[in-house]
Amino acid sequence: MFKFKAIGVSEGLAHAKALVIREADLTVVKDTITDVAAEQQRVLDSVEKAKKQIELLRDEAEKNIGAAEAEIFDAHLLMLDDPDFVEGMTNIIADEKVCAEYACFVNCENFQAMFRAMDDEYMQARAADIGDISQRVLKNLKGIADNAIDTITEPCILIANDLTPSDTAKIGTKPVVGFITRIGGRTSHSAIMARSMGIPAVAGAGDKAASIEDGADLLLDGTTGEVIADPDDETINQFAQKKKTEDERKATLAMFKEREGATSDGRRIVIEGNIGKPEDAVHVAELGGEGVGLFRSEFLFMDRNDLPSEEEQYAAYKQACEAMAGKPVIIRTLDIGGDKDVPALGLEKEQNPFLGYRAIRICLNQTDLFLTQLRALLRAAQHGDLRIMFPMISSIEEIRNAKHVLRQAKDLLAAENIPFNPNVKVGIMVEIPVAAICADMLAKEVDFFSIGTNDLIQYSCAVDRINEKISYLYRPLHPGVLRLIEMTAKAANENGIEVGVCGEMAGTPGMAPVLCGLGVTNLSMSASSMLAAKADLAAHSYGECKELAGRLVAATNATEAEQIFAEWRG
Ligand code: PEP
Ligand code: MG
What we know:
Blueprint: E1 2-5, E2 7-10, E3 13-20, H1 36-64, H2 67-81, H3 83-96, H4 100-116, H5 121-142, E4 156-160, H6 165-171, E5 176-181, H7 189-197, E6 201-203, E7 217-221, E8 226-229, H8 233-253, E9 270-275, H9 280-286, E10 292-296, H10 310-324, E11 328-332, H11 359-365, H12 367-380, E12 385-390, H13 396-415, E13 425-430, H14 433-437, H15 439-442, E14 448-451, H16 453-460, H17 479-494, E15 498-501, H18 511-517, E16 522-525, H19 530-538, H20 542-554, H21 558-569
Parallel strand pairs: 3-4, 4-5, 5-6, 9-10, 9-16, 10-11, 11-12, 12-13, 13-14, 14-15, 15-16
Antiparallel strand pairs: 1-8, 2-6, 3-7, 7-8
Helix pairs in contact: 1-2, 1-3, 1-5, 2-5, 3-4, 4-5, 9-10, 10-12, 11-12, 11-13, 12-13, 17-20, 18-19, 18-20, 20-21
């Protein structure tokens, strides 16, 4: 038996066998060969194998996700059938007398460069497809098995370097009872998705997870971050007991489903859920969410090689509104960049992606993309209390420019006689320190604020939110962070607008009273955290929350604030 502790990112307890997903070694060496025909045949066999794999994936996707998602695989099959693509590889082998792996790599680079040089944005985005199919051919050449997640049939706890959003989404359809990632933390997107699916997860395990063998018996605690491999009988029994207590606690929390969020003396705090897909709104409604405080619309754009059309977006936003039956649904416009990629946009890799060309910066530059989304949102707003939120705002100009494009979207819809709701509330994410500092001015421009603490902490403490090496510096209770939140809430309250927190801090156990005490009026979090937040609030008066917040803000450093908080929690 051995144990280690990493970062608990999605609460819950899991006991199952380990399934280790090994990172495929896709490095390529330029080996010279003599038997050209044999090497060319290896390419042809690998391409044929790739086609069969893709056909299977297409059929699965059609059955489990939908015809539209399956279309991407048809596009991949067409590319693999393209004689130029295959001959590109066989010609390189014949001309340069190099191995098939190297020919595959060079051919991929050539085709990607060709697509990227095209004028048409759609064709540029095809470079990502070339990358995908070439990687598949290369894996076949190297004898690397296809994605292990696709073949899971037994309950297991996954161990991986990190999980892409599509891997994480796939997990939801498999008997995966928990996962451990080597990199990442509470705010990486695999963690966020784990919480919305209610799957216990631990992140940032680094090399500690390296000695876990495939098939090992594992106990995982997604709250404390503790992992125990090959436990003895006594440990297994203790764990089972802990799980029983945990299940009982969850049952007690159920009484908060029908209640509104409020302190013991009735100060209202609206408790809402964060979602990434419209289907998730159903969980939020079922678990007593008083609205959707953050719909990360970018999840509709990720893990695919084309962009969602206005119609597709309209249907998704409408679905979320209908699931919430008149309760507010805040939809954030496209927030890509950082650890979120949209292959269809063919964005260049940047040195500092979290500080780069992202979110509202892209939308204000690529206004066609923005207009399509805004049109879909305005149309969907006929079906509920839909509100539009702009991410990564750093100045008044950005708000005014975004609102200008919103007006253009309304004018276009009106001119085309397409029905929409012109009275949509507009808000911004406050997640860049300068926005918090200038909150008094920004509050005059919008209907609501939502504080994105994931990024606000990252930017104010200058700590990459997904780098586990420096995760010790990522401290939500840093008095500087708390002061920025307090400042933002004060500006909002003085200007009579709502101020929420939709970063992971909102759903962290015990934080609801702190944020309430800082003046926040709404809290949006993973659906699985909402009941506990309501219970936390109901256990304290507003005066107690304010007193606690005051002590934390006045702490001389993060450690002192964390101690005050821990003592207060008891
Ligand atoms: C945040 O930054 O707190 C936030 C909610 O947005 P995201 O995690 O998607 O960056
Ligand atoms: Mg953010």
